[in-house]
Amino acid sequence: MAGNTFGKLFRITTYGESHGKAIGVILDGCPAGLDIAVDSIQKELDRRRPGQSRITTQRKESDTVQILSGIYEGKSTGTPISLLIPNEDQRSKDYDHIRAAYRPSHADFTYDSKYGIRDHRGGGRSSARETAARVAAGAIAKMLLETAGIRIQAYVSRVADIQVVKSHEQLDLSQTESNLVRCPDPETAQKMIELIDRVRKEGDTVGGVVTCVVEGCPAGLGEPVFDKLHADLAKAMLSINAAHGFEYGSGFDGTYMRGSEHNDLFENENGKIRTKTNRSGGIQGGISNGETIYFNVGFKPIATIMRPQASVDSEGQRAEVKGKGRHDPCVLPRAVPIVEAMAALVLADHWLQNRNARV
Amino acid sequence: MAGNTFGKLFRITTYGESHGKAIGVILDGCPAGLDIAVDSIQKELDRRRPGQSRITTQRKESDTVQILSGIYEGKSTGTPISLLIPNEDQRSKDYDHIRAAYRPSHADFTYDSKYGIRDHRGGGRSSARETAARVAAGAIAKMLLETAGIRIQAYVSRVADIQVVKSHEQLDLSQTESNLVRCPDPETAQKMIELIDRVRKEGDTVGGVVTCVVEGCPAGLGEPVFDKLHADLAKAMLSINAAHGFEYGSGFDGTYMRGSEHNDLFENENGKIRTKTNRSGGIQGGISNGETIYFNVGFKPIATIMRPQASVDSEGQRAEVKGKGRHDPCVLPRAVPIVEAMAALVLADHWLQNRNARV
Amino acid sequence: MAGNTFGKLFRITTYGESHGKAIGVILDGCPAGLDIAVDSIQKELDRRRPGQSRITTQRKESDTVQILSGIYEGKSTGTPISLLIPNEDQRSKDYDHIRAAYRPSHADFTYDSKYGIRDHRGGGRSSARETAARVAAGAIAKMLLETAGIRIQAYVSRVADIQVVKSHEQLDLSQTESNLVRCPDPETAQKMIELIDRVRKEGDTVGGVVTCVVEGCPAGLGEPVFDKLHADLAKAMLSINAAHGFEYGSGFDGTYMRGSEHNDLFENENGKIRTKTNRSGGIQGGISNGETIYFNVGFKPIATIMRPQASVDSEGQRAEVKGKGRHDPCVLPRAVPIVEAMAALVLADHWLQNRNARV
Amino acid sequence: MAGNTFGKLFRITTYGESHGKAIGVILDGCPAGLDIAVDSIQKELDRRRPGQSRITTQRKESDTVQILSGIYEGKSTGTPISLLIPNEDQRSKDYDHIRAAYRPSHADFTYDSKYGIRDHRGGGRSSARETAARVAAGAIAKMLLETAGIRIQAYVSRVADIQVVKSHEQLDLSQTESNLVRCPDPETAQKMIELIDRVRKEGDTVGGVVTCVVEGCPAGLGEPVFDKLHADLAKAMLSINAAHGFEYGSGFDGTYMRGSEHNDLFENENGKIRTKTNRSGGIQGGISNGETIYFNVGFKPIATIMRPQASVDSEGQRAEVKGKGRHDPCVLPRAVPIVEAMAALVLADHWLQNRNARV
Known about the structure:
The structure is a homotetramer. Chain A has about 350 residues and is α+β, with helices and mostly antiparallel strands. Chain A has one domain: Chorismate synthase AroC (Chorismate synthase, AroC fold), CATH 3.60.150. Helices cover about 25% and strands about 20% of the residues of chain A. Chain A contains eight helices and 18 strands. Chain A has a five-stranded antiparallel beta sheet with strand order 1-2-3-7-4, covered by helices on one side. Chain A has a five-stranded antiparallel beta sheet with strand order 9-8-10-16-11. In chain A, strands 5-6 form a two-stranded antiparallel sheet. In chain A, strand 12 (about 265-270) and strand 13 form a beta hairpin. In chain A, helix 1 (about 40-50) crosses helix 3, helix 1 (about 40-50) crosses helix 8 (about 330-355) and helix 5 runs antiparallel to helix 8 (about 330-355). The two termini of chain A are about 35 Å apart. The relative contact order of chain A is 0.18. The mean pLDDT of chain A is about 95. Chains A and B meet through strand 1, helix 2, helix 5, strand 11 and helix 6 of A and strand 1, helix 2, helix 5, strand 11 and helix 6 of B.
């Protein structure tokens, strides 16, 4: 019960169904005195909104955010910040066919199993539309982190088997927004877009990986033994729709190595203790060490395809399901701002928590 | 702050340093009336304790559990259950050399950065010894889950590049405990043991993967949108020492597939709605669907190696560090009961939470 | 930080300032399948809204509730319920005079001290207007409790020194709503109204006591040792604006008695174990015992008076403050539905928690 | 479920039954670097322990605290502090007669109703012995508060109808520990002691009031709207065994006043904004204002009396109950350190929370 809140000190609670009146978020715990511009929030929402390019869903939602509370004369006041995004393009009829039928690999069956009732329109609460609320709150988290010099950048590093070969250090991450797929390597981006175009025409979908890089994070963030920084990042990332895997630092690749190869040796770099390599991904023992934090999030291909699939209805009777309406062939480009938002929420929370590490 | 508590309703708080007087755990929220046998708890601890075989650390700790509260005449009473494990084999001298020096890829530097003080002996709080407390509490979680017919079994599926080829459905998991490395495939187990022996002699360490399988879990567990069942499993697993990655169901492999290949079609199997395939890993939209839950946890090679490594001390001066004492060449065999314990804690918590899904 | 959430399983988060765009509440954790009628929520809000009678503030707010999420086809779906109440009658100019000056016994000074910034209009977040959000959520809590046969009724038992002499057992609580002051004893009610009228004309304010009675509560609610039922009720009541005291059962009067007088003896009443007297107020050891729960909440006189008062501004300069606009001479009549709402929220939460007391 | 944890950032979890092996507490969230002396903890426990004078229970428990973790070389390390107090004087036979019978106004019946099982010996978990764990943790909270200049002193202000007439400002609180009953007014103390002696001889018990005074608290502590400072104090106090009422500042007396009499006017005292009077009890809008915080806690007479009382057993059969063993005739003298401990825990938690009020 009550699983719609995330964070301990910098804490969000989201609400809203895909085809209800609105979705929204309450952010409680934002320190007072932070400059907050509504257009910075809107800018992040625009990166996530549907209809932004030909390789995303063509559904039209402006996703215009309204601030209902918590900000006065451009600054946070320390009281809860309420952000509301009205739902606009509600073609609920597109979903009449799944009122009873269970879409394969969707949450229709499990919501029914759990609650005995569900708002089937557009996936209801299980729709990825809910993540817009996270992005709005995450925009404020980013503003807080900026005051501490912490910068978060995510990008698409793989679509199916088309992969960026370069590591994040070798890439110019400022190029991420320069193409539709949000991959900072232009050539690879082009191939990814071509693949997504092809898959879309086939009525199919495709998965891949988003990589996230956090620079400027000071040492000390993370609360052992359970609220390790990477453990909270893992939960945050896996809570995003379609995410099936998380790895940080050397990740699964590192599990093939010997300790003598994997260890990051310390050195003194002009009076600052640093590591020569960074297979730890900027986190040791669950606490940031001042190096760059980086991690990967794997996304399965979206379940809604434009082809008929055999299924059953709530009575167990056979029912064919086929995607109607307007859907994404690939979740990855729009997942980039969501990954950043969730990372920002985790880091803002831990940044506040860490203020109390010492007397 | 206060990161030593895990779970919402079935909630544990652990304490203790590697070379302090004791480690322990308080379990709050265990329903009353559960039969609890101290030897069942001890049995799980024995699977985790050091010195159990030649491929684990030779440190000798009996890890004998004491029950201080919460159990009366063999049953839980609904009050907090306090379990204490005294520390016995405290060769603190083995750690004098790292009082100031920072061991590579350990938590020495980050604990110092965060807290400005640390109990350096044996890694203090950052030692994997803390996980014994989790295993003790997890044993009780397993007892609760058994009453609901839920069974958790983990095994070592890969050590470095030596991998079990068979899927979990093809294995006889009752064989897991029949060999030192806890791999249910006897031939692969033999190769893994040989590799670990070799690595140990080289003074090096090696990583790999633990796979965990949950059978008998009813549909309905998981609390969207943030406390999705797999999101909580991810956090639980990443909170274990040396864990660097988590994937469930089809995991990262599934990100290479098309939606039309990946989707799990529903069918009616003798009146029960089931999926033909199980790439979803028993969880859809963050809620269990009644199929088998399975996931992988990647562990990096342990940082403590028996070779000299260049490092620095807290003043930034050069210092050479070399593992002394008795350490594991491979974390995986002893990680198996820890993964099971953390999975049990997550599932017990969600099983209780799910009782309130409906009026 | 993050103090705007109340409850563990049946959990609300409120937001909104007195003169912002809206106030509202997210209710997370309401079990699915509960019948929820918007007009039942509105009815409770109407009991609290300003302008309802001549002895309350004449400010006009319709306090019309909108349901944004969580309810589908008249039933709760298990997802967060978002209720929004737009602010209408925002005469912000009435508050220009206190932009800098600190009103005596208000929260102006402390909000400034804590946050360094405040929305001064109408008291901002510290305004009692926030309690409308609690009443809206409390209405749903009442609906849940009704399914369990639990009934909550509060009334005004004292205004200044005009007191209802009868105990709650001797009163006909169905008379509470029959008069402006919400006192079920008609003669005393008349005297209370006369006093409030007189005080209002004097530009002054007056305090008193609300008594709350909970009938039909089964034995077992309450979670020792900290979340005792009466401890959570105490916190809930003291969180209401102007509340300065709480007592349950025999309360402060009981502290004058001997144990031999005070103890409630058990007896067998037709096969049911009951107490002959009820000085325990229906709660023993922090757990409900099946008898009627009752408690008192003391409210100080409202701080805003229509007379000039000496004060200082944020620079410490002398400033005279005098109430402008439209204010309540007595908080008590409108406090009755707020006390009921907070009691309902506590009981609904504990009712859910108690489902997990036993295996 | 899981009601044995108190606090958000400075957070304790207690465990243990009256006649089990031990009671104890885990304190998580104590900032690193705090000087902690075990004898300061012991000193507070000695103020609470049984057998300390002729007007308390003659049960002999040394209540010797052991530190198991979290403190290294005399300082907190930021990791959980585990404090254990072994149970010594366990005359469990004294309780055989209540294994089935329900003692009037005790928690025997409600624990059985809730959990279906209970450790009846000495009241089990419902015994006031549990508060020793709180006192131990509260001693550390006091140490943290001392670094901020916050001082907490409680005293017995009334036993039955024998009351200290002077206000807390008029008393010399350093006299509190100079007599058995912990009343700083020597003459009144003498009368209280005589009354308790008389009541003890009669085999009866008596209640009263503890007053608590907090000096040196800076403005800004308290987290509206639910976690108001006085709301959290109310919960903390009502969670103590036998507490039946709480009031702060002017309390219930203030509810008889007019607003014009009750308001605390601000003034500039040598550049500091202060209030001329302090009916607000140092808290306005739920946030401390820098003035002295004071509140009263009412305790009912202890339920265990040395006289036969009519009761029933778990089958509803008539059973006579009479106190055996050694019990307190008056809870108040030993409640003083408990009230202080709970106040310290609330203030330490809020002091940490308030660090994040501003960017």
